[in-house]
Automatic annotation (TrEMBL), chain A:
Transmembrane segments: none
Alphabetized PANTHER family for the sequence: IMPORT ATP-BINDING PROTEIN
Any single Pfam family the record assigns to this protein: ABC_tran
InterPro entries (UniProt xref): AAA+_ATPase (IPR003593), ABC_transporter-like_ATP-bd (IPR003439), ABC_transporter-like_CS (IPR017871), ABC_transpr_LolD-like (IPR015854), MacB-like_ATP-bd (IPR017911), P-loop_NTPase (IPR027417)
Keywords associated with the record: ATP-binding, Nucleotide-binding, Transport
One of the record's GO cellular component terms: plasma membrane
Biological source species: Microbispora hainanensis
Gene3D superfamilies: P-loop containing nucleotide triphosphate hydrolases
Protein name: ABC transporter ATP-binding protein
Automatic annotation (TrEMBL), chain B:
PANTHER family named among the record's database cross-references: NEGATIVE TRANSCRIPTION REGULATOR PADR, TRANSCRIPTIONAL REGULATOR YQJI
InterPro entries: Tscrpt_reg_PadR_N, WH-like_DNA-bd_sf, WH_DNA-bd_sf
Name of this chain's protein: PadR family transcriptional regulator
Domain Transcription regulator PadR N-terminal: 5-80
Organism name: Microbispora hainanensis
Entry-linked Pfam families: PadR
Length: 298, 178
């Protein structure tokens, strides 16, 4: 029988997060301090008590290097969504540590945590979670305003982001006037509003048809090329395959960890100041993959 | 077929009828086309290649003595090599299924480990297909082909999930730590 021993938590000497504004559109920032963008150490989340205790997440160790796109897959109930919530500070671990950009966050107070989430984490949810009385542009402006940006700066940023996600022409539309795929693109733009250290996406294509899924994956691929750290939970193998790395969860633990960014892929060529639209390696059939699917017979 | 038959002989020597029964059980309705003759043709070829030898069965409880086939050292090597090699991205469902069954019966490899390895292999292929698909217009000829390839790989990956569940459960029963 297992028992949960709460860990004695050291107090961080750091009083607050880095308040300095992050420059420029996403991905153009120089490499952050060395070390992973996200780190989990012995991360454990237990629900229930006594006989009915469930280890939703059970001792997960995970490093997500800056600039990596990581997909977390696994059957429903394997703990992948809980893991994402712990990583994003939406839920607190029963045991273990979460580090975001070199700072330990699991023991922060509510206010500090909320502040950190606002500034350093962008969330994308399956059901979009847009404010339905606000226009697309207003939805995207909101996080910047909450983080203390001037209305003008927030508006400018929202304009840039909506352009980036291909919705410049829909800025004044209400979510109800947008398709599911468009709503999710607004949600992605909103997640990027404060140029977050990491974007966390929970089943981002779960409600979308294949064409809209394609659009979101293209967008993620642009983020990837631009060096945005991204962690997404998905049960869709095709969505997972668009990531640099896939981990599979089983019963709250990491069962497998696969790199997909081998030969010719995933290499970060610095920030070249390009458009972020390049699909580097997209057409180069490296290694044995696609070519091996062909069966040439005379 | 040769590899599967060899693998089924790993644990103990067996005769053609028994091999056919075991294959039929693993294949279900797909095995209906499998006639006894095919097994013997395969066994004869394996014998010629020096991978199996015929032995006389000890006196059976009843019925006639039957030809029993056993692996040679070369046959064991060949089976081990087959288990270790990846199935390749083109391997079809039946082929890989039989490999899992053979692995489970022979104890030569852990079926769950084979599933994991295959998942990684297919995920890498899917990653390439998906990346290429994103770079092409969905309605272009190349885009359509890539869509088809990606969907097939996805289907194979979903099937592997089912394989993993089933073989993990069996391993749990076997190991007594379910």
């Amino acid at each position: 029988m297992r028992t949960v021993v709460p860990r004695v938590r050291g107090r961080s000497s750091r009083s607050d997060t880095d308040d300095s504004p992050r420059p420029g559109p996403y991905g153009r920032r120089p490499a952050e301090a060395p070390g992973p963008a996200l780190r989990a150490v012995g991360l454990t989340r237990v629900y229930g008590q006594d006989e009915s205790m469930v280890w939703a997440v059970d001792g997960v160790d995970l490093d997500v290097p800056a600039g990596q796109t990581l997909a977390v897959t696994g059957p429903s109930g394997c703990g992948k969504s809980t893991l994402l919530q712990l990583l994003g500070g939406l839920d607190r671990p029963t045991e273990g540590e979460v580090w975001l950009g070199g700072m330990r966050i699991d023991h922060l107070g509510e206010r500090a945590l909320a502040r950190l989430r606002r500034r350093s984490v962008g969330f994308v949810f399956q059901a979009y979670h847009l404010m339905y009385e606000l226009s697309a542009a207003q939805n995207v402006e909101l996080p910047a305003l909450l983080a203390g940006a001037s209305p003008r700066a927030a508006r400018r940023r929202a304009g840039e982001l909506l352009q980036q996600v291909g919705l410049a022409g829909r800025a004044r539309h209400l979510p109800s006037e947008l398709s599911g795929g468009q709503r999710q693109r607004v949600a992605v733009a909103r997640a990027l509003a404060n140029d977050p250290l990491v974007v966390l996406a929970d089943e981002p294509t779960g409600n979308l048809d294949s064409a809209a899924t394609h659009d979101i994956l293209r967008l993620f691929d642009e983020l990837r090329a631009a060096g945005q750290t991204l962690v997404m939970v998905t049960h869709d193998e095709r969505v997972a395959a668009a990531a640099d790395r896939v981990i599979s969860m089983r019963d709250g633990t990491l069962a497998d960890d696969t790199r997909l960014d081998g030969d010719g892929r995933g290499m970060r060529h610095g920030h070249d100041g390009g458009t972020g639209l390049s699909h580097d390696g997209g057409t180069g059939f490296s290694g044995t993959g696609l070519g091996a699917l062909l069966r040439w017979e005379d | 077929m040769q590899d599967v038959v060899l693998a089924l002989l790993t644990k103990e020597p067996s005769h053609g009828y028994d091999l056919r029964q075991r294959l039929a059980a693993a294949l279900g309705p797909l095995g209906d086309t499998l006639n006894a003759g095919q097994i013997y043709v395969t066994l004869t070829r394996l014998e010629k290649a020096g991978l199996v030898v015929q032995e006389r069965e000890d006196a059976p409880v009843r019925g006639p003595r039957r030809k029993v086939y056993a692996l040679t050292a070369a046959g064991q090597e060949r089976v081990a090599a087959w288990m270790a090699e990846s199935a390749g991205p083109r391997a079809d469902v039946t082929e890989f299924h039989l490999k899992l069954v053979a692995a489970g019966e022979s104890g030569l490899a852990d079926p769950v480990a084979l599933v994991d390895a295959r998942r990684r292999e297919l995920m890498r292929s899917l990653a390439e297909a998906q990346r290429a698909a994103l770079a092409h217009d969905t309605d272009s000829e190349a885009g359509l082909l890539l869509e088809g390839i990606a969907l097939r790989l996805q289907a194979d990956l979903r099937w592997l999930e089912a394989c993993e569940r089933a073989w993990s459960a069996r391993r749990g029963e076997g190991g007594g730590n379910g």
